[in-house]
Structure formats: structure tokens, C-alpha cells
Amino acid sequence: MTNICILGGGGFVGQNLASQLARSGHHITVPTRQRQRIKDLLVLPGIEIVETNIHDPASLERLLAGQDAAVNLVGILNGSRQAFERAHCELPDKLMAACRASGVGRLLHMSALGADTGSKSIYQQTKGEGERRVLAAKGLDVTVFRPSVIFGPGDSFLNLFADLLQLAPIVPLANGRARFQPVHVTDVARAFALAVDDSATFGQAYNLCGPQAYSLQELVRIVAATLGLKRTVIALNPSLSYLFARLMELKPGKKLMTRDNHYAMQVDNVCPDGFPARFGQPASLAANLGYLVDAGNKARYDQFREAAGR
Ligand SMILES: NC(=O)c1ccc[n+]([C@@H]2O[C@H](COP(=O)([O-])OP(=O)(O)OC[C@H]3O[C@@H](n4cnc5c(N)ncnc54)[C@H](OP(=O)(O)O)[C@@H]3O)[C@@H](O)[C@H]2O)c1
């Protein structure tokens, strides 16, 4: 597999995967809606960025011409039912059609741990339906991955709590008892990279988790300790968690939390079987949080620069 097209390759997982694959000699194509937003990838050799609309079947077919494999990492956490269905169900359908039309026989698809057509969360329902369609695909060699929450430099999960912890000494936490088994972004990317050429993974779906499960409250306390902050983290009960999600949903701008996220957190996001051995050993959370400190230092430096008018 020399030429690989990564839909969603400009995102958090995508940038990591694109650079891992490019370093091992693959030629990577990354479509994006906005080329400027993924400046870091522009400078890497072996990666071509294409500004295009991947929801347009003709553009998708053009994109896949000459590719050996396609990877679909596109996903959204918030939005209307229609937006979820478009991203998680309709796009995989279009991608599979474009793969067939362009003679691309290999497809790797990103789902999510907890993906389930019967879930109360539309995110998990549509992720479940998307992976069901991909696994039922005829004439394509498909592999599906279902990670728990992913951490690492640039994540939007632990970094969000790192920012919130700066605001006050007491932190009320919705769904603090929800359990996660965070997996490092390089481990997720490595699983994709190793699977590309591995025929034993065809037709399979793999859960991806780190070595240890934590409650959300434990995770936030670990983030506070990493940043050297003394904070009291209080887990809200289920009714208050719902109310908190509802209030956050009404807030204009970027959503910190929605009721759909709240519903998704009602089921533990852990995998008892851990990380599949065929993709190596997963990194521990505790030993790999230095990036949170670096991100905080950079944010402070940017503030000083802004205040100084530079
Ligand atoms: N991060 C996690 O903790 C986690 C956990 C489980 C599963 N996942 C799944 O893993 C995948 C990658 O996650 P991530 O954290 O890397 O996400 P991300 O940083 O938000 O990146 C998502 C990518 O998808 C593209 N995208 C999003 N909405 C789109 C739309 N409506 N039309 C076209 N492109 C769109 C974006 O492309 P542009 O370059 O055009 O903006 C972006 O590059 C997703 O499917 C997510 O559901 C993530």
C-alpha cells in the first residue's frame, strides 16, 4: 500500500497517522475543508494536502484515483441528528462507493468505543450505524477501530480540563463517575498503520484502550496534579449532570458539553480486553502527560506576547 488517502487526516488523530505513515515511506493525501488550518502537515515531505469537499461524490472519486487504500477518520462530537448522520453514515457510504468506482480495495474506518445503534446518544447511534455499514461492505477489505477517549499532544479532552482547572479552586464535574480507558494517540495511529497491510485484520473491528481505566473525576484530579494545581473536584449527581449539560448546550459558541455527550457517558467507555496485542503495547497515561504542562506554558507565553503587542 503506497498511496493512502486519509479523510479527516488534518485532525488530532489524522495528523499523527499521516506523519507516521509518511515517515515509513507512504505517499499520503489529506483532503481538508481549510488548508490553512493544518499548516503543520504542509511542511512534512510525503504528504499532499488537497482542499476539497469530500461530501461531493465526484470530488471524492477524483481524490481516490490512484490510491491503494483509504482511511476514514471523519467524526463530529456535537451537532444535529442530520449532521451526525451526514458525517458518520452517509460519508462512509459515499466513500465506499468512491472506493469501488476508483478500484481502491482497502478501507480502514474509525468508529468509537460504545458505538451502538441502540444507544440514547445520537453520536453513538450514528457511529454504530456507520461501522455496521462498513463491516457489511461487499468487495472491500475493511477494518474498523473503536477507541476509548484518545489523549496526547493536541487532544481536546484532557487539554479542555487543563484549561477549566485554571479557572477556579472548586470544579463541579458532570458525569464524574463515568469511566474511560484513555489510549494514547500514537498507539491509535500505530494500530491503523500496522493494519493497512495486514490481511488478518480484514473484516475485523478492534476496540482500542490504554492500560488502565479511570473515572472522569480521577482523570481530572490527575490533570490537576500534573499541572501542580490544588483543586477540589466534585462529581455532580446524575440530575445535576443533565442540567449542567443542558445549560452548556444553551451557551453560544463552542460546546463544552451537550445532552448527547451526557447520554454517551451513561455507559462505561472501557475495554476489559485492553489493547490488541497485534498492534503492540499501549502507553500509560500517568507517564505521558507532560504535554499538558507544555501546552499551559505555551498559552501563558502567547498571552504575554499579546499583552506586549508582539
Ligand atoms: N479524539 C477522541 O478522543 C476520539 C475517541 C473515539 C473516537 N474518535 C473518532 O476518531 C476520529 C478522529 O478524531 P479526532 O479527535 O482526530 O477528530 P478531529 O481532530 O476533530 O478531526 C476530525 C477531522 O474530520 C474532519 N471533519 C469533521 N467534520 C467534518 C465534516 N462535516 N465534513 C468534512 N470533514 C469533517 C475534519 O477535517 P477538516 O480538515 O476539513 O477540518 C478533521 O480533520 C473521529 O471519527 C472521532 O469520532 C475520537
Approximate shape = globular
Just name the CATH architecture of the domain at 3-151 and 182-208: 3-Layer(aba) Sandwich
Order of helices and strands: EHEHEHEHEHEEHEEEHEEHEHHH
CATH superfamily annotation of the domain at 3-151 and 182-208: NAD(P)-binding Rossmann-like Domain
Mean pLDDT: 94
Structure summary, number of beta strands = 13
The first-to-last residue Cα distance is: 46 Å
Q: CATH topology of the domain at 3-151 and 182-208, which one?
A: Rossmann fold
Largest sheet: 7 strands, parallel
- Radius of gyration over alpha carbons? 20 Å
CATH class of the domain at 3-151 and 182-208: Alpha Beta
Which features does this protein show?
310 residues; two-stranded parallel sheet; Rossmann fold; binds NADP nicotinamide-adenine-dinucleotide phosphate; globular; single chain; seven-stranded parallel sheet; alpha/beta
Question: Would you spell out the secondary-structure blueprint of this structure?
Answer:
Blueprint lengths: L2 E5 L4 H12 L3 E6 L6 H4 L4 E5 L5 H8 L4 E4 L8 H22 L3 E5 L11 H14 L5 E7 L2 E2 L6 H8 L4 E4 L5 E2 L2 E2 H11 L8 E5 L5 E2 H11 L5 E4 L2 H13 L8 H6 L25 H18 L3
Parallel strand pairs: 1-2, 1-4, 2-3, 4-5, 5-6, 6-11, 7-10, 8-13
Antiparallel strand pairs: 9-12
Bound molecules: NADP nicotinamide-adenine-dinucleotide phosphate (NAP).
The site of NADP nicotinamide-adenine-dinucleotide phosphate has 21 residues, from α1.
